[in-house]
Amino acid sequence: MQKLGSHLIVEYYGCNPKILNDLHSIKNHLLIAADKIGATVIDEKFHQFSPQGVSGAVILAESHISIHTWPEYGYAAMDFFTCGVKCDPYQGFTYLKQVFESKLEEVKDLVRGLPDDHSYH
Questions:
Q1: CATH homologous superfamily for 2-114?
Q2: In the 3-class helix/strand/coil scheme, how is 91-111 assigned residue by residue?
Q3: What is the mean pLDDT of residues 71-84?
Q4: Catalytic status, residue 68
Q5: How far apart are CA 27 and CA 43, in angstroms?
Q6: Is 63 an active-site residue?
Q7: Cβ distance 104 to 74 under 8 Å?
């Protein structure tokens, strides 16, 4: 496969519910995570749900970081999708693990790109 990017699909379990329900904190920490992975932020959009939960995305020149939280379960689902080779999404993963006070994490690391024989285009 011709690698064009990395896509981490992350599950954080046993997190601090107060942090997962704080839109401003989540936004701030995702922007810091973008900086830590070496990405360029283009835009961001976040939403606070009622009675609880936050969804948001940071659009990067290199792709995106997205999150959805379930504070009532201490659970956050995230994507770190970066194109090229200059970004290290694991830096963002590790930073947010600490911020969310996660007790358990699962990561699926997908290589994004073209099959070796991409003569179809």
A1: S-adenosylmethionine decarboxylase (3.60.90.10)
A2: HHHHHHHHHHCCCEEEEEEEE
A3: 96
A4: yes
A5: 11
A6: yes
A7: no
- Map out the domains of the chain as residue ranges: 2-114
pTM of the model: 0.91
Q: What is the pLDDT of residue 68?
A: 98
User: On the CB side of 2, how many CA atoms lie within 13 Å of its CA?
Assistant: 6
Of 63, 64, 87, 102, which residue is the catalytic one? 63
| Cα–Cα nearest to 115, from 4, 38, 32 | 4
Amino acid 28: pLDDT: 98
Catalytic pick among 6, 15, 83, 102: 83
Q: 17-54 pLDDT, tens per residue?
A: 999 999 999 999 999 999 999 999 999 999 999 999 99
